[in-house]
Design goal:
Largest sheet: 5 strands, mixed
Distance between the termini: 26 Å
Strand content: 15-25%
Helix content: 40-55%
Radius of gyration: 15 Å
Number of helices: 7
Strand order of the largest sheet: 1-4-5-6-7
Number of strands: 7
Shape: globular
Structural class: alpha/beta
């Protein structure tokens, strides 16, 4: 994951996502939807995996709940699309900004969804593996279990450091 240089100085999700417009390895899909569902903020890949990164603010109950909902609905939509209507992925690609389509052709983009899909839950700060919040822990454990049941993986991370957050403010 380090090769994608995901750790940035950004005060919020929108500014963070915007920092990847020029990065040819990362496709910014923030605000693009399939049937009113945002699949991710950023998509990137390697030989085996396609990473769908969804970002929210600080690691707290509210943002964990929002991110859990986004990832759950995204994973369900991807399941439905792959089983029933792959044309929706083509439409999704066609709706991307031109700058993003210059990074990857349609056929290569479609093949991304044949790889192992790994969702990344990204927080601006405060994510700790050993959280004291039973609510956040429960939500993430349920999300992990549900994704595994659907054949997907989950990674959780901060996308800024405490130092970066202070500099960005």
């Amino acid at each position: 994951m380090k090769k994608y240089n995901l750790l940035k100085i950004a005060p919020n999700e929108d500014q963070y996502n915007g920092m990847f417009v020029e990065d040819k390895r990362i496709i910014k899909v923030h605000t693009h939807e399939i049937k009113f569902i945002e699949l991710a903020d950023l998509i990137f890949f390697d030989e085996r995996n396609t990473y769908l990164m969804c970002n929210k603010g600080s690691f707290n109950g509210e943002h964990v709940r929002d991110l859990e909902n986004q990832i759950t609905t995204s994973s369900k939509m991807i399941e439905l699309v792959l089983k029933n209507d792959k044309e929706l992925i083509k439409k999704y690609y066609n709706d991307l900004d031109l700058k993003e389509k210059e990074k990857i052709g349609q056929e290569e983009f479609l093949k991304l969804f044949n790889k192992n899909i790994v969702f990344i839950a990204g927080f601006t700060n405060n994510y700790k593996k050993e959280t004291r919040s039973p609510y956040a822990k429960y939500l993430l454990c349920e999300l992990y279990k549900n994704l595994k049941d659907s054949g997907f993986d989950l990674l959780i991370t901060n996308y800024t450091t405490s130092e970066s957050k202070k500099k960005a403010q």
